[in-house]
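[job 0412] stage=fold_complex status=start
inputs:
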Amino acid sequence: MKKFLFLTTLFFSIALLSACKKDEEKATFGTFYLEFDNIVGDQDLTLVDAANSDFKYANSHDQNFNVSLLGYYITNIKLEGPNGEVFVDPVATGAAAADVKGIYQVLESITASQTIGLTNVPSGKYDKVTFTLGIPADIVQEGATGGVLDPAEGAWLWNWDAGYIGFTFEGRSPASPVAASQWNPENSVQIHIGGWKDITDNPMMVNNVKTITLDFGTSVSVSEKLEPQAHIKMDLLEVIDGHHGSADFTTTNAVHTPAGGTEFAENLHSAFVVDHVHQ
Amino acid sequence: MAPVIGATFSPFTMKKTLIISALALVSVVMGCKKDETEKGPSYEFRKPENFPEPTYTFDNNPVTEAGFKLGKKLFFDPILSVDNTVSCNNCHNQSLAFADLPLHGFSKGVMERQGTRNAPQLVNLAFMKEFFWDGGVTHLDFVPLNAIEADFEMDEEIENVIAKLNNHAEYPALFKQAFGTDEINTPLLLHALAQFTTMMVSDNAPYDKYLRGDLALSEQELEGLHLFEQKCQSCHSGILFTDGSYRNNGIDSVFTDIGRARITSFSGDIGKFRVPSLRNVGITRPYMHNAKFATLEDVLEHYADGVIDAPSLDSSLKNGIPMTAEEKAAIIAFLKTLTDKEFTQDERFFKG
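[job 0412] stage=fold_complex status=done
writing structure:
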């Protein structure tokens, strides 16, 4: 009897141990990289100083322009796969920069910011990415936050209509009649897309935060050894000279309200395209 | 046999009884000590029973004594302004429920610059959904940034404020004590200020004591309350005395300050401003966003007889609010029961 019990115990212990081992083997994780490559139509986007008078880009109004500042906030990143794989990049706010998770400011001026490494992605296949462009209500309403949302560290926070600018473009165009001031050089063009409020009884409270889903057109595998990359192109021309709105710099050269940015926010969906993925 | 405490006087139980007595004595002594500390000021945020749930995100920023005192030091410190001359306290005086002096219809900023709207009282902020006359700010944390960076208020850049604080002789240690961090950054500055301002709860006016059954109101005050319920409460509703909406109350036909439309870009909102709380209204003159009325008598005279028509005029004011002289006097008597002297004299807010 005793011997039987001992053997049974031993058998179950081994079974349990091997089960654990098997589970551990099963749940592995890898890293997935999202690379954001900013372009202007068929040209690569290159920043110039704010006062620069070299205008290498043109819009459909035959107005030349350049770019001195460009960037956007990305958050709530989700990867999905053909077999039901789902990875949600955790989002957290906090006063310390280290506490802020899953909120990214992609800046043309900072190369490192253009690659987002998603860690702890469960091994599996993925063929789709979804992200939020701009900082949505639930994050704004957490109150003051550090890291890329700290205005002293360069966060794009509107004080007077408190919330974050989701997409920023600044440059110059000879077509812009704007005079020089303490805020901008002569001929400046500034398009700031902000606004995050949804208020049902006030249709003018514009929410310009967009959710963008991009198909890879194929699937890539994540594992401990496989770290795929999705190369996403963002075409500035699609944003400021797109289907839903096109900025004529003679009149549209200083967009600093939610309502003013709406037509450009509508263009954001088509501005982001997955150029290719690599394994 | 298992010993039963108290049933027999064996040496064992005697010893145990002694220990229990000693323990009881110690806890009584500790209890006294605890009571003594409870007599001192409390730095815990307390929601009055008849107030709505706070809107403030206390989970992200719970009030502590160190944080409150740090917030207070910052509130009184002109270091927040570009030339170190203007503090929050310049325009928000506790004796006036943290409103500005009656002399300052528009507040004075750095270099004698003048603001464009009347500085409001700072009361019951933890319960408000939106801030400023146009409601552009939806979280209390972000409110001070406007005062710090507005050119006619403190005209300072937040980067400079953070640098000044980090290089200060006292602040790094005070922030460390309050938040446990070595580096001062914007959210910590805003959290410290919010710990101070969320504690500005006004719920001890004579009217509150009347509600609690601790104080009787005079006949005239009660008559005023009755009239207030009929004539004013549709906008100045609830225990906070505001419904938080934006309305054109007929003080102008042309608006140089477009008010709510500044935030909504909606022409129908031109001339609408936030319905202010009426708590402490007896000590926060002048009134309206543009300081148009010097006294409560002027305000009621306006509603009775002075409403100016405009496209966005609130529908409830199309015909004004008819009031006799006696009714006005009674309403004003009632409004003065909203003046909370315990709040304006609360030592926790003293500069110290």
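[job 0412] summary: Chain B touches chain A through 34 residues (CB under 8 Å).
[job 0412] exit 0
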